[in-house]
Structures are given as structure tokens and as C-alpha cells.
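## Example record

The block below lists the input lines for one assembly entry, exactly as stored, with component labels intact.
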Amino acid sequence: MVILCDTCSILMLIRIAPSMFSDHKFRTITISNVAREFISTQKFKSKYPWRSDYRSNVVPATSSSMQNDDYKFFLNLVNKMLENGVINSKNDLLFDLSTVDKEVVSYALSQGHAISTGDQGIIDFASQEFSDDFKGNRSPLELIVDWLKMGLFDWDDSRHRVLAEWALTNERPQPAKAKGAFKKITGRSYPGP
Amino acid sequence: MSWQGQHIKTLAKERSLTLKSVADQVGVSRQALNDWSKGKTPKGGHLLRLCKTLGVAPDVFFESERDSRVAVPMHRTRKTAKLNDSMQEEAKELASSYELFFREASDPGLVQSLRIFKKTESEISKASFSLRKLGGVENDAPMNFHHVFSLVKDLGVNVVFSNFHEKIKAYAFYTKINNHRVVFVNFKTKIFDLIFCLLHEAIHSIRDESNAYGDSYLYDSDEEDFCDQIASRAQLTDGYFSFVLEAIDGLSASTQLSQLAKFAVKNNHTMHAIQKRVKDKLPDFENKIYRVETNLRKSSPTVREYFFKAKDARDYIELWKSVSPIYLEHVIEQSENISHRRLCELLSIDSELDAIEAKAELVRIKCEG
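Predicted C-alpha cells for the full assembly:
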């Protein structure tokens, strides 16, 4: 499973795979605080006018899965470690994660899930401190490639148009390997950065 | 928090485990376990396995030092709300969530303090005069937003605007976090309460330096009154009130009341401030003055509505710069390392997408030096 941690990742993917949170074959979930941001942020209304059409598609993981002892243990561990001060070996600065970042990391570690985020701080923290347990970070394009490989949908013009919009909305660059895999499967070049 | 690795040996012994077997189960060398016992903090994954092996919660290995790094004095509440433990806990929680941020922030250096031990009338006058001078207020003009923000900047106060938990029934409160003076202001605070409450909390911050509060972290009513009086006189001089009284002289009582309300709105002070300072020189308005105040309060915008209306991230950063330059400077310092969601928390940004733009702007400012 992959936890989509960012509203921007959800905004990038939801039109391509509207059932990604309801059909378990997609193996993607999100947490309630991220879903809430997707649903309630007023500004998205004007910037992403189609957002409203997909509100009901963004279903977070059930709250019970964030109440079990394992999750609570990890959240406590992560909180204590960060309060104590963990230095990022890449830049010698303290990690200072938000409440939601901590929830995401704890949930991913407790459930053995990977994450999808563009936020380097979360990735650095999880991979530095939990190298044996952290299942890694998957970019949105890598997820699309995974879904295509699993045959969950065919790549068509309407999906490609959405992908082309990623460049217009200035989304973060995607890994070169994923771009190559995408071209190999679809026969089309990835239009974004 | 500080790592308490010395507990490893005791816990292992209590469970009849040798250190070698603990090390094996955690998947590290005996030497690594020894290093942890002597103070080296293990990585998260190792700590996880250490806790599981010894059957303990992570808390066992951490001692809270929060109180020495984050001081949250008990403060007066909004209106008649009672001060209670849960309010104090929430205030501490809010302040503690900024502990790491202020641990990384550059040292505040030398900051001004206010050493007054005898709370006399002349000391109050002297202090309020100094504050007005520091804020750049001329003659008998009422202190405006520009003055008060400039004053708190000169006093080295980080003003952090945020949405308070409903249990924190205060307009603002002062804290000291890792030696940084911080005043938290509730976004919901009405604009006409802001100058006075910022002044009041700023005075706490400069009183704190002179150990006026000792270790109690409790402001008694004497101290609150004292800070009130300095704040009141720093905001509004006797000369201002003379002018106000002169302006309403000879008018009917109801016209006087509406004129006083106009002064309050124009100069961002409460009707209560008038009542408190020149009650004897006013007709007996009975409760009408407070009814007017209630209406003014209803129509007064909140701090968020007044100061933080921005079209885009760049404007939003500019607004923060104008109201809280010291705090924003610390955010800029750390901008490259702050996650988008953390930035949302630090600058009360609504969405992660805006935070991405805000972060880009902060990094740009940092790069431009």
C-alpha cells in the first residue's frame, strides 16, 4: 500500500484514477487530515474547479486503523525522538515535522506502507531513522506506471491530457526511470518536467 | 527531552536478559548497546526494537525538559473566563510545538529589559514614556499598529499569530521558548483589542528578564494591574484623553457616547479604556458604555480578517513581514529545511499548495540575502 500524503499528489492523480481510494487494487490510501484538506480548502475551488466533482472519491483510511496500539506506539516514538532532537545527516539541521507529517510517518511505519510525498523532510527522516522498516517513497508517475503494469486501466487521450496539465500547474519533476517506464508502456512521452 | 540510555541495563536486568541477548534481538553489536547506555541516542529503527525487546514504551528512555525550555506563565483570561489547568496545558502544548523551531532559530542576542521593583506611579509613567519613545510615537498621538509592531520588534519579541485551541481563552499570551521572547496572538482576537493586549504581553516579556516572576510563572493581580497601567498609558496618554474630553464637552450624553465610540474605533482602543482612565470626568453612562463596546466588538474585524487578507503567497509573506518581522526572519532562516505542512503550521497557511508557493518565496528571500 502507498499512503498519499500530499493534497497535490491527490490532485494530480484523482482524475486519472478516480477510484484509487475505493478500489483496493490500486493499493493507495490517504489519512483523514489530508482528505480533509483536499475537501475543505476553499482556494482549490478556483484553482482546480473540477475538485468538487471528486470530493466523494477521496475516502481516508478508517479512523480505527489510526487508533490501534501499533500506530499509537509509533506516533509516541516519533514524537519523543523529534522532541529530543534528530539531526538530518544531509544538512546537520534538526528535523521539525508537522503534526500531519508525524501522523503519516507513524502510520506508514506501523502498517508497513510506502508513502507518496514531495516533501524531502519526511522522506529523509523516515529513511535515515527507520531504514529497515520504511518502505520508501513513490512519486505520482511511478504510481501510474505501477497501475498500468497491473492493467488497472488503459492509457487514453483524456488521461494524457491530465498528465500534460501537470506541467502547466508546475508540479514537481518526476523520476527519470518512471518517465522511461511510462514511455515504454504507453508509447507516449511523459509531457511534464 | 533528553535521552536516558542508562535505563537499558536496569531494564535488561529486571527482565533477566543479558546485554548480549538484548543486542542480538535488536540486531546491533554489544558495543552499540554500550554507547546507547552512555548517552548516544539510537536511530529510530533500533529504538523501536529496543523498546519491543524490553517491553517498554519509548517514554521510558526520554526525560522531559520541556519546562526548562518552554516557560508559559499563567496569564489572565479573556473577559471573565476562568484560568484553569486545561487552558494552561493547551497554552503549553501550543508553545511546545514551537520548541524545535526556536531551538534552531539564531540567538536573539541582547534584548531590552524593564527593571522595576517598586510599582509606583512615577515608574509607570517613566516606563510608558520609554515604550512610546521606542515605538516612535510622537506627542500625544495614540499608539497605532505601526508603532506597536515596531515596538515589539525593538523589544525582540516574536509575535506568532495562530488559531488558539478553544480552551485557551485569551487574546494573547507571552512565553519564553529557548530564550526567545514569544507572544502568541489568537487570530480571532478583535482588532480593537490588539494594541493593548500586545503591549500588555510585551511588558510581561521585558519584566520577565528581570526575574520579576521568579519560578512561580504566575502573574498575580498586582502584576497584571501594573502591566495594564503601563500598557494603557503607553497606548493612550493623558493628553489624548484631555483632547477627547474637550471634543465631547457640551454635547448631549447620547452624542458623547457615539463620539467616544468613534474615537475608540479610529484609534483602536476599547470603550473600557476610556471608562478606566477618565470615568470621573464623564457623565454616568451606567451600562450604556459597555453596550456600545459589545456592539463595537461585534463589528470589529478579527486580526486574521484585518491583517492577513492576501491574494497569493508572496503577499501573505509580506503581511507577516509587516506585523512580525523578527519571527518571519527566523522562518526565512529555516525555510529550506521546513516541510510544507510545517510551514502551514508556522505561518497558519490554509493549504499545502499555498505552502509550496510560500516556501519558494521564503527561499527566494533567503537567497537574495
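Chain A touches chain B at residues 6-8, 11, 37, 41-44, 47, 73-74, 76-78, 80-86, 88, 91, 93-94, 96-101, 118-122, 128-133 (CB under 8 Å). The radius of gyration of chain A is 17 Å.
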